[in-house]
């Protein structure tokens, strides 16, 4: 599975580098740090035409993106633009869609984002949906008491996801190797189904499926909040193609402004936020409220500073890439400056006003 995914990514990357660009515009797409610099300059100049269409990749994660979608805020902000929402099961699939030029903006975890940058895919990170805490966790059967007990057991996680990264880091911290554990590649809904059938011994997964497994008798023995304390912080990140950010900087700023609006709703009126998220996840607000508490949400002003988009996030993506290389998940790591340049705080600064 790992080798086939890498081959697929290589083919997609080759196609992306030779394609005419993303469907939202006809201009040739800028790549890498050059694209980020161009987008920053364009955003600073103020003024860009509105796109005819914005294609957005989203996931079933209880954060502000679902609030924006449910309330139709982008449709209100762009009355003459078609907004297409495409649901994805995991960040790895979103990165593949970026490489294939089939989306403009998307959501992916920090580990797949780091992998995408390591593979030279041209995109920027303009927003942090959330810093992952207890909303992602290692949940297991009753006869497993610690990570050391995972040896020889079947543990599921979506390949190339933040949970896969955290699982590998936890296994290493426990003095085991990835080969000591039978790691099953599966998407979150498949993981829940495998748990109910008794096919797996545990999983590192996120809400809402994490909560569903706990309700079915699963026991949490490690969370991503604890992994962050060990220096393995993970995030849910936004990514925008270099081409879209360069051609439509005002649209990206407005998109960030609506995400900031959603974060403020979570902070100021969690009940209303939970109701909007619940409608998208087919849950009740009462079920969503504790899931919201497992993530850390940051306003645009908070994100723009040096602790996040303005500095630390780029370094964290580089460290994530180095770890993924050490455990054999990616072949190469790019210079640290490439990861730092891909993180663009300009839009958050403008949205914070």
Work out the helix count. Answer: 18
Strand content: 15-25%
Oligomer: single chain
Average pLDDT across residues? 89
What level of helicity do the residues show? 40-55%
Low-pLDDT runs: 1-35, 37-47
Tell me, what is the CATH class of the largest domain?
A: Alpha Beta
The CATH architecture name of the largest domain reads 3-Layer(aba) Sandwich
Number of strands: 11
Question: What can you see in these coordinates?
Answer:
The chain has 353 residues and is of the alpha/beta class. The protein has 2 domains: 2-131 and 234-352, D-Maltodextrin-Binding Protein, domain 2, CATH 3.40.190; 136-229, Periplasmic binding protein-like II (D-Maltodextrin-Binding Protein, domain 2), CATH 3.40.190. Helix content is 50%, strand content 17%. The chain is built from 18 helices and 11 strands. It has helices spanning 2-18, 32-45, 64-71, 73-77, 91-99, 110-118, 162-173, 188-197, 209-215, 224-229, 242-247, 249-268, 270-281, 285-292, 300-304, 312-326, 336-342, 346-352, and strands at residues 53-58, 82-87, 105-109, 123-132, 136-140, 154-157, 182-185, 202-206, 219-223, 235-241, 295-296. Helix 3 crosses helix 12 (249-268), helix 5 (91-99) packs parallel to helix 6 (110-118) and helix 8 runs parallel beside helix 9 (209-215). The chain starts with a helix and ends with a helix. Residues 1-35 and 37-47 have low confidence and may be disordered.
